[in-house]
């Protein structure tokens, strides 16, 4: 623990100014929660001035305001570039109040002017239909973090400072949020921050003692334990604790004086002194009462300092006239006449210490990353193409091919592009990017380590939550990145994806928010090739989860081979404000398309593969649809069997790269018109569709299509174990032999030769199953399809 | 940090016996990874004896074996009841080896006998098609935890010891897993364990330094920082570090001697001395080389002690004859002839220190919780019924009604039932169960706290991960529970649900695994009534996620009122081996059914509500389907409008409680036959279906139905903000007026009166929207429908 300077760094004037800003912010916060009118309390408060529904969270707000006030002082003094991440985002009124005071709010929302009329509108709009959300939302100036679903504040903060050497992110961590898993892991982010190149995060653990109804864990362990915990996380904790405003102002100012100097020393040592040791970054433990400066007691029960201060301390005002009087007294306790002039404008004293222009935390461009976003310099992906003389004649590891291109991307964009992954980047065969960039690592290093250094830029930690949170912070501050993960475990961040998708949807509707780079998921080590890791590693359901979100935000790609993956990846890294989900295998897999063909195919997103079809461009008897590398392999193999054994049968193979093409054009911007869909899939012929994931998704996407009743989908139906790759497709009835059986079962009038072929397929499956059980591997005939040497 | 006793507690004989067991387990682990045959190395090893595909994870295995060996000593000595949770579950060969050695394996799998023939089968089956998974899986005796997806080991361990005062759970936390969020939060579980009533967890942080490719964070911070971290988490850490087997055996034995005594002292003080202070529980930091005792160097690169030991240290044996020789030397280094007799049976010395019967960790019944599971004593839920004289005449808060019944459940089952929730149990209006049971809390307590005590049994922490993990541990050891959560944030545990559903699916197929109690989710504070918290709190997609898993495991219920919720909850708490998802509101909501009607309706799971319909039991002109409390309210209201305004229109209202009734009977055990479905929804009439969640799920469930093309679904389409409850349904076009419009748009030939009504509905919506924007609340006419006083 650091010792608090017993000096009182603030002069009387400074203290008065800080306190005035804080009181003003608190006054405005209460006003937002309660008032419809009478914002300056020109007349005695009555029920008519009060909102019929009281929404909002007072408990955390005065603490958030206190921190904002004090950050302003050091920002203005040291000309810092700082932004504010409010983990307790439900303290929305606080951030709105402070940004209104500093002027940044009214610049973005001229209707909410910095005067009495604006104040009335400010109060009225809060948590009001047609107004603004109750949380620190995308609508809030200076925010990159909503804080509705708790746990991600600190990861966002760390993501924001990567490659932003001049940026300081003040991150308030509520003691409720601190109990979440993602936050508990996030403290260790300091092992990945290089003070020579990255900015600084100042975590402020705000202990106000209670959550909604319960005490908080970190407020109820001893001082020594908490000190040990923060020390163990690698920080130097400063404790600022109390409730008496004057003493607290002095203590907070003293702590921030020491801390800003310490951060400068750390950065100077790394930037000028060449130090590569991991520093012990400072952090603050701020302990204040919940609902600080609010009503101490209501209806005989203590409120300030208890869980009862969490939301609105005074409620049911219509039934309790006394509560109206208490509310008025509470608001007047901030002495509004000292804070606002006769026009409702903040007085000069209140604003004396406030930073100017883009130094205001509500106007810092880093919190509106689209303003700073620049295109990546992308190497021409065609230069990385695989030569494909004949479809299906040779194999590549698609992600390894992509890795070479990503190496180029990383090389050409050394300050604005990063790859994130939970210790799986090499396993996902993107090793080239690690060779180029190294892995970021500020903890101890040993000679046996591989590409691990303070200068590394690939972010690897065994926490999908941290990868996602860091990347979100990096993107929202105007940079680019890719998150690579094992497919099954990306579900770990389902809820983080939700919140980010909601953020993107909301910010599309806010004119001053500029588009940011898309969040790109590269899911490899996918369900069909986790045969060796078994059932727990087999889950293709992230796509289902993703497509529940707004169509304008969501893109899903299933490139069937390496060249298609290159084309898709280039497209994704150029795109803006989407979530792109790309699923691609890492195992050797057949190459089908030349680069030119791949570009054309991926641009269309869906298409007939003539070389695999036997309908000669005419009307087919059956359509084999496929999406995903393994389903494509099995479908192409099934088509080859049918071509050889039932040459009179006209088979059309349709491959889908862009999954949303299957949907109706009225449902998704990439959706096909019914005419185009019917041209591909016919209106009356059987369609046997092999899909990468859970089969019902294809039904969901296509149920409006004319030919939907003829659609038969194979996919993963939650059957798996530790076995061989081919056994995986067999277990789920998606293997080539079963697809042939499906065709024979659905095309009428095929006759006896087909019946015999069907029986042969059944026998072949039994034979392979028996061979696999005996030898522990797929038989050579199957392997030759799966691995190199196949021919069509 | 605790001081390691410098004494060497093991005699030479004891040490030799322990080392023999350890070597035997290591030998058997290597054998499983590599060998098809020649298990006792009777002849020189050749390629023919070696598996064609090498799968498995050696790196963590010798450490897991070491811990198993040493736990055996103290279990046998002190007659402890202990189970073993292996966080690094991919070290599967280790747990299989130890349970085979102790005999528990062969008792459950007689084909894998404890002799040479059995050893050959043991080796062959591992990670082999038709054999056993590579991880510590449901198939592994003594396991309650797979450890495939990392992060949950410690939460499972803590859940297992709740209300199990005699149980000790040794929980190995890998240093990779320790980086995950859920694990980082789990350390704080010690604040919720009451030594008077609960058992003990011994966490062992196993530092082997590397993950797949990267160093681990906790192995690369200083000793002092790690000591501070564990102290800060509230533990007394013991460090056992090294690689020389003899010294390590002595150090581990010394640590375990001290620790078992300390656990006894803690429990005695609480149970006999009445201490209610939170103890500092011991934990171990075990630092050993990754791949300990394996090849030090392969092909000139270091392996032991590096990330290269993570999976198979020696690979490509067919291409590298030298590797075959190295493998043989490695296996012989364990001196198998000293460990196994001529028949391949473990020698007496190896087994001398092994516990017997159910004390063996592979045979402890707590790890097969179904063996210990007993029915709950359930109070008659009919006694908690709401009186319903007329449908829709009065309102109840459904979860509050449920809370009273849960109070009774908690009262009558004080040692086998718990409620878990992330600080939302009171907010979800289940406060009665807190009044009955209190909240578990061993950290500091203050007078301002509410029902917080060491004796509390409701488990509340602001971490959905911990709630889920604790509950899983509690269920898997044979008890019962409910997890209540805000609906939107249950996505935080999507991936944990996945893994638990996979566990349930797998264990259904393992004869010796007995069914456990179902995992019951109660999702409240749902999408339609998070109007006040805004967009981030609005997500009904967990149901979509859940229904991807095996139908035999999954149940989804949407009770429309309080009596239905009681009936459903009673059913869920009686059920076995399912995941039950129940969505229910907490706000005042109309009561429709008497208890008898509710029981009949919930038993059928779907049915026509005659009192709300106007088809008089005949063929309707239109069907209004509904699932969920708010959709039901809006559908019933729409039906009432239609009855009044278009009395000649025959409207049928069909309410769905059990969502899976919509699916085909071939797809889900609860699925309706086509005949029954058609009888409800007709084959040719328009169906306007109002659904609680994302509308496309209803299409997915019904696309095989004859009348699917007439189905029009309203639901949440990701439109929301901070607004009023009625504005939420308006934003998503699911309000009563829009449903009336949908009916008019789809029923042909309704004439001019309908056209005028439609226009009236449009105007009414505009009016309400304007009123809400002006007054900040829904107009009284709408509120009267939503809140008490409505009549139909």
TrEMBL record, chains A, B:
Keywords: Lyase, Thiamine pyrophosphate. Its EC number is 4.1.2.-. InterPro entries: Phosphoketolase, THDP-binding, Transketo_C/PFOR_II, Xul5P/Fru6P_PKetolase, Xul5P/Fru6P_PKetolase_C, Xul5P/Fru6P_PKetolase_CS, Xul5P/Fru6P_PKetolase_N, Xul5P/Fru6P_PKetolase_ThDP_BS. Residues 11-371 form the Xylulose 5-phosphate/Fructose 6-phosphate phosphoketolase N-terminal domain. GO terms for molecular function: aldehyde-lyase activity; magnesium ion binding. It comes from the Bacteria. Gene3D superfamilies: 3.40.50.920, 3.40.50.970. Belongs to the XFP family. This is Probable phosphoketolase.
